[in-house]
Amino acid sequence: MKFLTSLATAFAISGIVSATILFAPVMTQAQERIAVGTLNGEPIWLDEIMAVAQTLPPEYREEGLANLYAQLVDEVANSRLAAAAGRESGLDRNDVVANAMELAASRVLAEAYFTDQVSEMITEESVQAAYDAFVADTGSRETVTAAHILVETEDEAKALIAQLNDGADFADLAREKSTGPSGPNGGELGSFGRGQMVPAFESAAFEMPVGGYSATPVQTQFGWHIIKVSDKSVTPAPTLDEMRDQLASNMSRQSFARVVETLRSGASVEVRPYDDVLTEAQSAADARQ
Questions:
Q1: Using one digit for the tens of pLDDT, what is the confidence trace for 47-70?
Q2: Which residues of 209-242 are buried (b: 16+ CB within 10 A; e: fewer)?
Q3: Domain that holds residue 55
Q4: Over the range 120-155, which residues count as b (16 or more CB within 10 Å of their CB) and which as e?
Q5: What is the pLDDT of residue 31?
Q6: 92 and 173 part of one domain
Q7: How many CB atoms lie within 10 A of CB 208?
């Protein structure tokens, strides 16, 4: 199964493809062009109104296809009529218009190529493999339940550790000596995962065995800590169905990067200095005045 809906979502977020999340399921299920009406006897196609829908601001797209359907059909009809009139008037031979049409065609082709290449990489099997890797990586879901005593100097912290070694109660010392807001509660911090504490504190807490406390003080920008770990656990992984869209989205970005890297590997791209281009553009604008 190809996860085209998730691909569309990922591309929309990255700004590479202007895809419409709300309408994508309709498009991915359509194997043949579906007529939504006619203009002078010629079919107006579903994919045409979908293309217009993709250009709408998010607040309009949220209304859904049913509420926008008639307006979208009208927009396609109006656009066709205007394009035909433009060709009759020779506008398609205007250099500016012709260049814009060429750019638009190139963008459509590029987006189609990216979608085709990336969709080939995202299969049920590859999503399952990514999920299995996530489940196996328990470190990212590990939590620690800890308490701490925070003091201003290393010497104070060492003195408190010495008292703990002599049998002092950790919670009593925290209530008496800690300068942190958790002091009155015996230093209890509750449970936290990786990335929720400053790096030095996190590293010490996650490396400490359950029931242990700091053998040496831990310094952070807040002062000196004595940490005690009372519990460790691993949050259960979400199900594959719950993670499917997220996994496919992440894989889309990674696959897109690989496709771009492959394309760029045999290409030579030279970029002129911005100031030079700006000067030339300004000169051209002045000449037209």
A1: 999 989 888 888 887 888 888 999
A2: eeeebbeebbeeeebbbbbbbbebeeeebeebee
A3: 4-130+252-268
A4: ebbeeebbeebbeebeeeeeebebbbbbbbbbeeee
A5: 52
A6: no
A7: 19
Same domain flag for 101 and 63: yes
Q: Can you read off the two tokens belonging to residue 193? A: 């995962």
Model pTM above 0.85: no
C-alpha torsion sign, points 82, 15, 116, 263: positive
| 187 close to 178: Cβ distance less than 8 angstroms | yes
Rounded Cα–Cα distance for residues 19 and 9 (Å): 7
Same domain, 263 and 190: no
What's the token pair of residue 286?
Answer: 């002045």
